[in-house]
Specification:
The protein is an alpha+beta fold. The protein is built from ten helices and five strands.
Length: 469
């Protein structure tokens, strides 16, 4: 009899490998073979996953490192990933036996008015009990395995969300730093325009004093100087705002944030665009990865719903001693145990369980559509960024040519002034023209750098330069 029971239990365990529900097949959508706007080929290798190294700015690399190691929101996202991974252990533990230890030591009084069960004695008596109790629910149809599968997908989705936040964080650090550098350069140009306006005001005042100018010319020169002076404070405030923003991103107090202007007050420029393919981008973007894992999670949830249609089988176990006299607690006569198999199945639930399966399938189908939409959004995002980069680089080429021509004109005017062939007013006017074009060039360079950072973010981070075009 004992052998037969043992064989029965082993047979139940043997069939525990059955897992109901649909088999997971990763979602897939066809990607175009090339981008509509063809990216250029980098002139120098760019390290994979550390796109900011291509800017060749040690201060930017330092800020990136501080953001990665100290940003509070990124650290919180990492903690949420770790918590999601612990949930995997929680779900997987359901397939293990549960064993408890308990004991009772008390005085009891048997009722004398009860006719059943027959009493061996009446009145007060002692009761001692010590033992183990346990239960093992067999995962015959894979409900626990499906829940563990769903927990793994949820943890992977949480990790993808963390990677997405990390990508946005680094892009924001880069964009804020580029804006700070551009603002510092604009401050220099604005201060130079103020000095030119003051110099022109002094010349006009001197000529008015000599009777060669009207008072209206002096008033206009004063107005031009005031207008030039008004452009400086907003730029200083914007630079302070960007510095404070970088302090928050790097978990530093604003007063402790120290930034050193670049030696030439230039704007860090991004490297050439990468020769990445659309199919490569689909495997790198965190939002697409997150949509993939959501689909996997909901596919596993279908298996959980299907498994609820089948019986639940468990093996209860009780082992211990019970006695009224403590000195007999560890004798064979006081020993008790219980071992068997329990099974239960719901006969009627008003269609709730089939509705749960239908709802799970619909939720998975919705995630499939969400994945397809995420892919379309990503493709559009990259194409938009490529078009913006091409536009800003083209405008920068034109404005650099214009700036070069204006600087040549200024140099010619200065030579004429030194030789006495022209007045100082002409030189000041040409210098003002150079400053205006220079400011436009700074704005365009900032656009090029920001559009490059946005492109890196839309591509999912870094890239490998050995990817075949």
């Amino acid at each position: 009899m004992k052998v037969r029971r043992t064989v029965s239990v082993l047979a139940l365990v043997a069939v525990a490998g059955c897992t109901v529900g649909p088999t997971y097949v990763p979602p897939h959508t066809d990607a175009p073979s090339q981008w509509a706007v063809q990216p250029g080929t980098p002139s120098k290798p760019v390290p994979d996953e550390i796109w900011w190294a291509g800017f060749h700015d040690p201060q930017l690399s330092r800020l990136i490192h501080e953001a990665l190691t100290r940003n509070n929101d990124l650290a919180a996202a990492e903690k949420r990933v770790e918590a999601a991974r612990e949930q995997i252990r929680i779900e997987a533990a359901a397939s293990s036996p549960v064993i408890g230890l308990g004991g009772i030591a008390e005085n009891r009084r048997q009722s004398q008015t009860i006719q059943w069960p027959p009493r061996a004695s009446a009145g007060d008596y002692r009761y001692w009990s010590l033992g183990f109790d346990g239960s093992w629910e067999l995962d015959l149809f894979g409900m626990t395995r499906r829940r563990t599968e769903a927990a793994r997908a949820s943890a992977a989705e949480m990790a993808a969300q963390r990677d997405g936040f990390r990508l946005r964080l680094l892009a924001e650090v880069g964009a804020d730093y580029v804006t700070w550098c551009a603002t510092e350069a604009r401050v220099q140009v604005a201060e130079h325009r103020v000095s030119l306006a003051a110099r022109q005001r002094d010349l006009v005042t001197h000529e008015w004093t000599a009777g060669a100018r009207a008072r209206a010319d002096v008033d206009q020169a004063e107005a031009d100087l005031a207008a030039a002076q008004q452009t400086v404070p907003p730029l200083l405030a914007q630079a302070a705002h960007m510095q404070n923003a970088l302090a928050i991103l790097t978990a530093t107090t604003p007063e402790a944030m120290r930034l050193t202007p670049r030696a030439d007050l230039s704007i860090p420029m991004p490297p050439a665009r990468p020769p990445s393919l659309p199919s490569e981008m689909l495997t790198r973007r965190p939002d697409i990865q997150s949509a993939t894992f959501r689909y996997a999670r909901d596919n596993a949830e279908i298996g959980v719903a299907v498994a609820s249609l089948y019986p639940k089988v468990a093996i209860p176990l009780d082992f211990g001693v019970t006695t009224s006299t403590l000195h007999q607690a560890f004798t064979t006569a006081s020993l008790l145990w219980q071992l068997g198999v329990t099974a239960g199945e719901t006969i009627y639930a008003g269609g709730r369980r089939t509705a749960q399966i239908d709802a799970a399938r619909l939720q998975r189908d919705a995630e499939w559509l969400g994945y397809r939409q995420a892919v379309l959004n990503a493709l559009r995002d990259v194409e938009d960024r490529l078009a913006t980069v091409a536009d800003t680089e083209s405008r920068l080429s034109f404005v650099n040519r214009e700036l070069g021509a204006a600087q040549e004109q200024l140099a010619h005017a200065e030579r004429q002034y030194r030789s006495g062939e022209s007045a100082l007013f002409a030189t000041i006017a040409d210098s003002n023209a150079v400053d205006r074009i220079h400011e436009q060039a700074l704005s365009t360079r900032q656009d090029v750098s920001l559009s490059g950072i946005a492109l890196y973010k839309s591509l999912g981070g870094g890239w490998r330069t050995n990817t075949p075009p």
